[in-house]
Amino acid sequence: MKAKRLFFSIWLTILFTLAVLSFVIFKQGFQVNTNLMALFPEAEQSPIESHASKRLALTQGRRIALLISHAAPEKLKILAPLIESELLESQLFDIKEQLSEQSQLADLYRNYHHQLFSDTTRRQLEVDADTLLTSGLVAFYNPFVGISPQEYLNDPALTLRNFMMSRAQSDKLILENGRLWHKSDDANWLFLPLMLKADPYNFRVQEKLLTTINNVKLRHPELTINYTGTAFYAAYGADSARSEISTIGVGSILGILLLMVWVFRSLTPLILAGVAISVGIVAAALLTHIVFGSIHIFTLVFGACLIGVSIDYAFHYFSHQSQANKDNRGLDTVSKIFPGISLGLVSSATAYAALSLAPFPGLRQVALFSATGLCSAYLTVILAFPTFMSSRRKPANKVPWANKALIEFWQQLNMSKRGIIAAVVMLTCIPALILQKNDDNIRNLQSLDPTLQSMEQQFKQLLGGANSPRFLLSTSDDAESLLQMDEEVVELIQQSSNDSKVIGLSRFVPSARQQELDYNLYLRQVVPKTYTALVTAGFPEETAHKQVNRLKGASFNALTLTEWLDSPASAPWRFLWIDDAANKKNAAITLIQSTLSTHKLQQILPHDVRVIDPAEQYSKLFGRYRQQISWLLLLAYVVIFALLNFRYSWRRAVAVISVPAGGCLLTLGALSLASVPLNLFHALALILVTGISIDYSIFFAETQKNPETTLLSIALASTTTMLSFGLLGLSATPAVSAVGITVSLGIIFAYLLSPLAFQHDTDQKGGYS
């Protein structure tokens, strides 16, 4: 009784500690991360490439865009200020900054409008300046364009206006009264580019963003609103994960409930199982949050699956307690199952340790979460169960798949016959494994919302182009060389592919060399015809003469990159410039949309310009880690086998380890026969199969009599595990689904193989009888 009280006191102390930690952490804020890329290691890049990738991801991740239309275009123009005001009320973004960007740019460029040309303007001036001046005059007389007399006086060729419009996010947008519009025969669309103030992967930000958009829809049901941006995709992923957590959690709990009621015919095991699961998950979540500072939604999805795994030790206790003698007081059952579940815990922890060796932050979280959850559930069984369930209960009901015929099938086979069966399994799997295909393309692991994809397609159709993860990174010693290099890059790409779109620093700040060339072109082609253009437009002759003389007397003064960076107008695009002062290097990001392959792009570009393709880099990284994790799994088997040899003879150890190994091999063979290409997550799932199914063989190896009791506990444990991971297999996320299907298959095969480890011989070091 003293031992039981001591154990229970220790368990209560653990519960009290968990309660205090829960209070502290939830008071400070329990942080849940929904950024998928936070799961993965950084791509293998140089420091400047890594800095550029993070800078781009941070800026582009906070960008969102709205396309709004109304059946009556004039009505939309009236509603536009109201819509902007409603969006501004959310305090998610500063719309005023976005709307004033064009005016800020105009203020910045106004003193340089005779040297900033679009490509089209430059070509027209070189060939026929009269046509450009005529177009300017027509636009000046058009009341809907909104050209002021002062603007026309300073620039009758409208070179600055054309330059600014060519720098817009799409050449299919026009600027009217400070707003960007897309006009077509079918409808007029208001384009609102916005920048979130906060992290797009924050739960609260996502919920507030969606609520804000929905509120605008409710207030103006006549509007058609399309939207796109990282925050919306992240919100969809987080919502899917929450749904999957609920489905897996509820499904697992219902399955456990039905099994417990049917098999043990008592509420006590059901309540105790709930306690073990709850303690395991709470302890795992708290420790993971303490170690990592937050917990990823992906980890919580796997945490829901822990419900079906952490109950293994409880089932083992219940099954043996139901067969105990009348004078059993709980501790006898603990002493009977202690070697088996302890060795099982160590072996499972070893398998999860293999997960933690992979350089994946997300996998380290899963490994810590799983190991902590199992340890906590184990301690609950050892320390608390004898107090709550000490007397013998009614004999347990059988379940159809826990039939002793499975034990008898393996027991009637001698070593030779078992060896033959093992050889047949190996020979059957080897061809399938040889023919097995791999698919490490990260793009195939994404689950995208069809509605969001449809909206993004609408953006592409109306505005052209699409977001591309690729970008170019140029490096040079000084800003002028960098700008000239960027201009060269744009020209090379456009020469190689007409449909390519490139956005670099030179789009906003041409090199001083190019500005001077354009300034001289303006002096040659436009200034001599300015007087006539101004008089024709109705300006007094004296005013026209003064303007011409002012232009002739002016001197060239280049717009510098520093001046642009210091201007508020550069805020949306400032991320394109990287000042690597530590290495005395400057770098620039160039965004690109092109059908040219990464290899082809790298061939045509200067050696100081690198093509950065994060998706391709991660795909290669995933392939390499898939191979490394496969070797880690083999290493885990070696370590587990060595541990087993301390407890069993080498022959018994081979039998024990053949259960998880056979389960993994048969799973790989099944996936190959089903033509399922393997990826990193299949390899990770095999580690989970090993960590879970090693318990089954150890439980049988520790069984000296009544193997039917052990089979019942393993049948119940494998059922709940398959239920959890089977539901995981229904996930809309391919990576999560791959884990669920692989673990489910592995557990089924391991369960069928588990009696291999049972022998009537009770001498643990004596080998088989």
Automatic annotation (TrEMBL):
GO terms for cellular component: plasma membrane. Keywords: Cell membrane, Membrane, Transmembrane, Transmembrane helix. Residues 243-391 form the SSD domain. InterPro entries: MMPL_dom, Mycobact_MmpL, SecD_SecF_C, SSD. It is a multi-pass membrane protein. The chain crosses the membrane at residues 245-264, 271-291, 297-316, 337-360, 366-388, 419-436, 629-646, 653-674, 680-699, 711-730, 736-758. PROSITE patterns: SSD. The keyword Phosphoprotein does not apply. It holds the Pfam family MMPL. It is found in: Cell membrane. This is SSD domain-containing protein. It comes from Corallincola holothuriorum. The lineage of its organism: Bacteria, Pseudomonadati, Pseudomonadota, Gammaproteobacteria, Alteromonadales.
